[in-house]
Known about the structure:
The protein is mostly helical. About 50% of the residues lie in helices and about 5% in strands. Pfam families: LLG1 (PF26578).
Amino acid sequence: MGSSAGAVLFYCVSLSVVAAAAVVSSTAAGHRSISETALASSAATATTTSRKLMGADSAAPTCPVRFDQMKGYEALGAKCRNKATVKECCAAFKALACPYNKLLNDADNGCADEMFYFIQTKGKLKPGTIFENCLERPQGLKC
Length: 143
């Protein structure tokens, strides 16, 4: 099995395994967090987002946030490529992602996939870096 096939398989299994946990965690009252399901999107291999595809299916979900225009991906990547600064990496990710936690936790809008696409391409991070380093608890990452 090639590494990209393995990453895709890991992504699919991760999403199916944590789907039930995401439903339970989304009903918890008053907690601002980014779900494990949303973080699992970081494990996907970077692919072109729907905004980049010519003639993409107009019925496909569209994230209302233009993550392609956000700043901070390069700084996040610089902090996360150095294993000695995992705390700084996760703090930088929280600063970038937590304002959008509700959108990122909605699996139907594509926001998590889109944000992680730009983290991987503009921040030059390997798929899964955020998921592997910043998952704080079974429900995800507390903001």
